[in-house]
Design a protein that fits this description.
The complex is a heterodimer of chains A (114) and B (113).
Chain A (H helix, E strand, L loop, with lengths): L2 E3 L4 E5 L4 E3 L2 E3 L6 E7 L6 E7 L7 E2 L2 E6 L4 E6 L8 E8 L6 E3 L3 E6 L1
Parallel strand pairs in A: 2-12
Antiparallel strand pairs in A: 1-4, 3-9, 5-6, 5-10, 7-8, 8-9, 10-11, 10-12
Chain B lengths: L3 E4 L2 E4 L4 E8 L5 E7 L6 E7 L2 E5 L6 E7 L2 E7 L7 E8 L8 E2 L3 E5 L1
Parallel strand pairs in B: 2-11
Antiparallel strand pairs in B: 1-3, 3-8, 4-5, 4-9, 5-6, 7-8, 9-10, 9-11
The chains are: A mainly beta (114), B mainly beta (113).
């Protein structure tokens, strides 16, 4: 069974600085997908970035980048130039090789300070 | 607007009530999901529907009854709930299982009194 671990319950970052949110995963599948979602206080889950297990380059989407280290089974999210609007809960998630279930970690609350 | 619409946004119900949550997507997706998000717990997958057929029931109590009449609509029928069922219920849809293909609704915040 797949498992996602996010060890940081909460993080603070100064506005305009970069922050890394940790995510490790466990799976026996050879092919899988890794995702990061942002959940503001309104409740909706907003897709941020995706990394396929066979993608050799780290994914980037604007200020978001995913630091993918396959051997270590880690998929950390890096947010550059933090903004006050980045304050939210962030979830790491993954899909299995077959099927379309999305399994989530416990999440990390990020607070950006001005 | 995310493309997946959930109604109602908020719901308060007694333990003897019967209510339904609705989810609607017009993204052309062929899979729909119900997730439960309780305080201080990871999101829990409840049900998966592929092409209107239920393909996963994650040991969900029978007081939760899903219904998927077509690929665009998903319901969660609720009856005789318990206070511990109070949570945010999120609906999602997808066409593919990669590449950010999951789109979530804004959720229904349910309180059982």
């Amino acid at each position: 069974a797949q498992k996602i671990t996010q060890t940081q319950p909460g993080m603070f970052v100064q506005e305009k600085e970069a922050v890394t949110l940790d995510c490790t995963y466990d799976t026996s599948d050879q092919s899988y997908g890794l995702f990061w979602y942002k959940q503001p206080s309104s409740g909706e889950m907003i897709f941020l970035i995706y990394q396929g297990s066979y993608d050799e380059q780290n994914a980037t989407e604007g200020r978001y980048s995913l630091n993918f280290q396959k051997a270590r089974k880690s998929a950390n999210l890096v947010i550059s130039a933090s903004q006050l609007g980045d304050s939210a809960m962030y979830f790491c998630a993954m899909t299995e090789e077959y099927g379309n279930k999305l399994v989530f970690g416990a999440g990390t609350i990020l607070r950006v300070k001005s | 607007e995310t493309g997946v619409t959930q109604t109602p946004r908020h719901l308060v119900m007694g333990m003897t009530n019967k209510k339904s949550l609705k989810c609607e997507q017009h993204l052309g997706h062929n899979a729909m999901y119900w997730y439960k998000q309780s305080a201080k717990k990871p999101l829990e997958l409840m049900f998966v529907y592929n092409f209107k057929e239920q393909t996963e029931n994650n040991s969900v109590p029978s007081r939760f009854s899903p219904e998927c009449p077509n690929s665009s609509h998903l319901f969660l029928h609720l009856h005789t709930l318990q206070p511990e069922d109070s949570a945010l219920y999120l609906c999602a849809s997808s066409q593919e299982n990669r590449g950010g293909g999951y789109t979530f609704g804004s959720g229904t915040r349910l309180t059982v009194v």
